[in-house]
Structure formats: C-alpha cells, structure tokens
C-alpha cells in the first residue's frame, strides 16, 4: 500500500499531535515494511532531509517531503484539482493527521480528528480559535472518506456536533510515547508532576491553587509543571510567579530525556484536565507506573480504568484532597502503581498502526466497515 501521511506536526511541533504522528509512522514502518510511506509537510515537490530539533526523525524507509507552500498556492491547487496524491507520485490513500487539508484528486482521504473540545469547553478557547476549528473540522468531515478518533468520548462529540455518518467514524486509541530509560530526576523535596501546554483546558490554575493549599505553602512538596505556553495563560503564569519560592516550578518544554527523568522521579503525576480527546500524558504516567490524578467525566477518566484517583477537576477542594492522598498515602500509591502498568499494557502503537491500516483498507475499497 502507498500511503501519503501529513507529517508536518512531526517536524515542527512538540504537542500531542506531533507525538501521534511520529509514533504512528515509526510503528507502521516496523510492522509493515512493504508499505510505502510518503510523508509530506506543506510542499510535496521538493524532498528535504531534515532532523527535527529533538532528534526524533522519521524512519529511514520513509520518503520525507517537507517545506512550506504559500496559502495562495494551496487555494490554487484546490481550484484546479491538482491533488496531493498526484504530487506525491501517486498514493492509494491520503491521511490528514492534523488540520491541514491538502486536496486529493483520486485517492480516498482518511482523517484523524483528535477532539471536539472547542465545542464542549468554549470558554477555554478564544472566539477566533473556536471559529477556525469549527470551520476546519466541518471541512474535514465533509471531505474524508473515513474518520479516526482516539476515544469513545471524541466519537460521541463528533457525531453530536458535526454531520458525520456513524459508520465512517472509527475509534483508534493511541499508545504511550517511547521515552528513554534514564535515572530519576532528584529535586530538593518530593514533587508532583503535571505535563501539558499552559492553557485553561489543562486546568493548571486550579491545580496550582489546590497544591499550594494542600502541600506547597508548607514546604512539604513541590509541583513541577512541564509544557510550553499556549493561550489564555496569563493567570496561570501569574499564579506560578506568586507561589512561594520552591513550591511551584515551571520548566517550559523539555526534551525526551529530561521528561523521562521527571516521570521517573515524581512521587505522583497530576493531570486534572477539564477535557481531552485521549490524554497522552495520563497514559505516559500509567506506563511509567506512577500514581496519577485525573478529572472526572473526561477521556482520561475512561482511560485509567481504576488506576488513578479521579476527582472533580473544577473543585479546588477535591484536587487538594486528591493530591494529599497521592503524596502521603504509601499504601494507595502502591496499589495504583500495580494497576497502572496493567492498564498501560493495553495500549501500544503497534495496535494503533494495525487498526489504522484497517481503516485505510476500508477507504481504499470504498467499503463500509462492519
């Protein structure tokens, strides 16, 4: 099978979509060496040999094409009907992995929709972001032959908010990011770790307030935040700045080795997001065998299946109580560690690649999956 995959986030991003693309392509190349992977960014005519800043490049067997194509040129391609499948030298299926919808002339399109949280958590986005995400998602739903989502909650939201036929929407969960084996990072005091872009949906502001009240202001523990700046994050940054020295630390984005060391060294991981399409940091914490806190009524709560404390993420009291239990109760932490690895073992990128290939095959045959 010849597959064109939008690899732009894998080249230029560090967030969840970048992880998804990189890990999917790596697992695919290992499991299906006879398939031809043609990875593209915005420009498909020019081959580029490039290593991303964190060293996590595509598999050697993949044909990488990248660069930038002006938006005017994209519009022209759509108008004249020249498709990405043609410019890639012919592919059997084209996979839109993000919000870049380069046209396909004849090959069917499979698209991954990671979440619809801009509809469900409107106050966590700017009006412009919501309008753009809604417009692009509508276009994806209208043009893709098959749609992939990472969780049942995302599938339910997509069917509720957009005109998607249910038999075209397939749940394909992710696996945990492959991080190196490193020594645990040691800090001056026990610490809880929170990984995620600084933005309202990730709920760091409430987490900081709850942590300070429960543990931080007394100097008993430290909260370490890892993640780049996002949007509407001014209050989060102010809360970090106002915290007593050594109680709340923001490290911005870190590389894989540093992140692995932080996971290994943390006494617990807190990921009290208000909503997730899947929740990769939660799965990473489970894979590392870490006691974990997540929010109720989210994809993370479904994912952990009893391997984490689940609390109301909008309640600072509930967050504070959960943090105290995670940091102070050795028996509870032991129980959660044992359960965590069992749950994490259910999710692998190899199974993601197999399930994704099945969706490709249905799209190529123009069949409706049973």
Helix and strand topology:
Layout: E1 2-6, H1 8-12, H2 16-31, E2 36-40, E3 63-65, H3 71-80, H4 84-87, E4 93-96, E5 109-112, H5 117-120, H6 127-143, E6 146-149, H7 152-161, E7 169-171, E8 191-195, H8 204-216, E9 222-226, H9 234-242, E10 248-250, H10 256-265, E11 268-271, H11 280-287, E12 292-295, H12 299-304, E13 309-311, H13 316-328, H14 330-344, H15 349-365
Parallel strand pairs: 1-2, 1-4, 2-3, 4-5, 5-6, 6-7, 8-9, 8-11, 9-10, 11-12, 12-13
Helix pairs in contact: 2-15, 8-9, 8-13, 11-14
State the low-pLDDT regions, or none: 43-55
Query: What is the chain-wise order of helices and strands?
Result: EHHEEHHEEHHEHEEHEHEHEHEHEHHH
End-to-end separation in angstroms reads 21 Å
What proportion strand?
5-15%
Averaging pLDDT over every residue, what do you get? 88
Profile the largest sheet. 7 strands, parallel
Strand-pairing-aware structural class: alpha/beta
Tell me about this structure:
The structure is a single chain. A seven-stranded parallel sheet has the order 3-2-1-4-5-6-7, sandwiched between helices. The protein has 15 helices and 13 strands. By secondary structure, it is α/β, with parallel strands linked by helices. Helix 8 (204-216) runs parallel beside helix 9 (234-242) and helix 8 (204-216) crosses helix 13 (316-328).
Question: In a few lines, what is going on in this structure?
Answer:
This protein is α/β, with parallel strands linked by helices. It has helices at residues 8-12, 16-31, 71-80, 84-87, 117-120, 127-143, 152-161, 204-216, 234-242, 256-265, 280-287, 299-304, 316-328, 330-344, 349-365; strands at 2-6, 36-40, 63-65, 93-96, 109-112, 146-149, 169-171, 191-195, 222-226, 248-250, 268-271, 292-295, 309-311.
